[in-house]
Amino acid sequence: MLDLDPSFRAVRRRDGYPRLEDLGLIGDGETAALVGRDGSIPWLCLPRFDSEPLLCSLLDHRHGGHFTVTVEDLREARQHYEPDTAVLVTEMRGPTGLVKLTDAMALRAGADLSDDAGASRGELVRSAVVEDGTVRLRVELRPRGGAELRVLASGLAVQAPGHPELRLHLRCNRPLSGLSAVYELQRGDRLDLTLSWGRVHRHHRFDPEAVLRETAEAWRRWMGAFSYSGPQEPMVRRAAITLKLCDDWINGSLVAAPTSSLPAPIGGVRNWDYRYAWIRDAAFTVFALRRIGFDGEADAFLGWVLDAFENTEQPRIMYTLRGDPVPREVEDAGLEGYRRSAPVRWGNGAADQRQHDIYGEVLDCADQWLRAGGDLQPALWSGLVELARTAENAWCRPDQGIWEVRSKGRVFTYSAGMCQVALDRAAGIGERLGMPGPVGTWRAAADKVRRLILEQSWDEDAQTLSEHIDGGGSLDASLLALPLRKVVPVDHPRMRATTAAIAERLSAGDGLLYRYLHDKSPDGLSGDEGAFLLCSFWLVDNLALQGGIERAEELYDSLCARASPLGLLPEQIDPSTGTFMGNFPQAFSHIGVIASGVTLARAKAGGTA
């Protein structure tokens, strides 16, 4: 769980790899890096989130590349963030001394992180100070594929063959003649390193302390907008910063996670590239951010969704952060995968799937945009009208569903529900703003789809709504999202029964839920998977809104307690061990922390979510 003053613990690896729980996240709105408790950086893509990684020993500990600053003969370590920032502190203890290492992706002095503008300096700062005793501090920068060096008066020019477009420059306050060195330091000594790319900073004043201070100040100014009074407030604060670290500050989009191909489970083949923006994440993200004071980020994401929609003939389920089509999925045979869990994949093969929920996602975003004061231009309305017309016919047709199954499509209840959302929101916009279009037809169709979901997907024997619109009693945890999108009333007797059925039949134990059961709902892939944290947060919401506030808060507290000491959460949890699985950290899990916290706080206060 989140621990603001953690204890020192031994640093252990398994099969040569760090535990995901032992990694911290830093970033600058253009890319992000993971930092281990041993001082290693095993993951960094440059210059952007979805670029080819410069460092990826997280996916191959021998050949992937890393940037390490560590104490020789490391005994134990701990990590924490500077309060209300993404500045990460790692304290490492060796046999004769203690070092404090501070890491950050540097931000411009005076940067306003609420602006739709870049704040990155294109620079990674690593600053080590010996706090006690004496240490031998080892420094090693090893990009994937090696590097060529040129010694300059101000440091090293580094050329990585795999990244010919990058102008890398490494600077240090101590002599630096290569990419690997050991420094003997004593109490009070400093070792400052900066790795820069893009515009090279070699002629700028070298002042890492000032850069770290200005970066921390920028984060704290942004967190000044934070507004939340409810359960697990420190965890919600950290979740807000984690979401901001997954945000593309220039474009307004949000990566599902800053990593690719972390397996779920270990040894399985469910290894996907999550460094893209999913449209379906938008409405949930906007809901979460707006309710804790970050209207600017919410509006930016809504604007990005609508821009991406307008720039393509048909809406896609996911885009690059710039709003372009996602690259085709390829496997990288040159990397063995995290803990030898191949394949490693770049791109995403689900990008061209048919998923009918997309119509509701876009129209829900448009509705929120307009309610917040957005301007409805004729071209945008024309596109929304076409989406509503498509949804009117698509709700009863097969697709791959929210979980992007790679088996034959079915008519998923959640997809039908999101078509209902498309029709409902289109009708609402037309009614509210007096826009031209078959508003009455959409309203009638929305009511019809809602009624059919409650009637046709209901299985009397199983006493639950079913994952497919034609019933059958098989379950899918996305049914818990239907009342959250206002498809069906949360207190409807059949929704209450469905909530109870999911909590029992999809239980992985201790409040965890599976998305679905693979023997009942085959998805075209081999192997099992872990419990999805997002689904459990949806359960919290349903319980709270159905009046089970005490049970909901107990579950919410247990989910937050599963976070790492830094307050970070993965996509999945291994129910048998509690270990993290899947890409990390996962934006949607942190959206769940925020949204469920807000829902609980309002339910406890007697209001509505």
Overall description:
This protein has 609 residues and is of the alpha+beta class. The chain is 30% helix and 21% strand. It contains twelve helices and 28 strands. The protein has helices at 208-223, 233-245, 280-290, 295-310, 357-371, 378-394, 413-433, 439-456, 493-505, 533-545, 549-560, 587-604, and strands at residues 13-14, 17-18, 23-27, 32-36, 40-41, 43-45, 53-55, 66-71, 76-81, 88-93, 97-107, 120-142, 148-152, 155-159, 168-172, 180-186, 190-196, 277-278, 318-319, 330-331, 345-346, 458-459, 464-465, 507-509, 512-513, 531-532, 572-573, 580-581. Strands 5, 8, 9, 10, 11, 12, 13, 14, 15, 16 and 17 form an eleven-stranded antiparallel sheet that branches. A four-stranded antiparallel sheet has the order 3-4-6-7, with no helix packed on it. A three-stranded antiparallel sheet has the order 26-27-28. Helix 3 packs parallel to helix 5. It starts with 12 loop residues before the first strand and ends in a 5-residue tail after the last helix.
Write the layout of secondary structure elements.
Layout: E1 13-14, E2 17-18, E3 23-27, E4 32-36, E5 40-41, E6 43-45, E7 53-55, E8 66-71, E9 76-81, E10 88-93, E11 97-107, E12 120-142, E13 148-152, E14 155-159, E15 168-172, E16 180-186, E17 190-196, H1 208-223, H2 233-245, E18 277-278, H3 280-290, H4 295-310, E19 318-319, E20 330-331, E21 345-346, H5 357-371, H6 378-394, H7 413-433, H8 439-456, E22 458-459, E23 464-465, H9 493-505, E24 507-509, E25 512-513, E26 531-532, H10 533-545, H11 549-560, E27 572-573, E28 580-581, H12 587-604
Antiparallel strand pairs: 1-2, 3-4, 4-6, 5-8, 6-7, 8-12, 9-10, 10-11, 11-12, 12-16, 12-17, 13-14, 14-15, 15-17, 18-19, 20-21, 22-23, 24-25, 26-27, 27-28
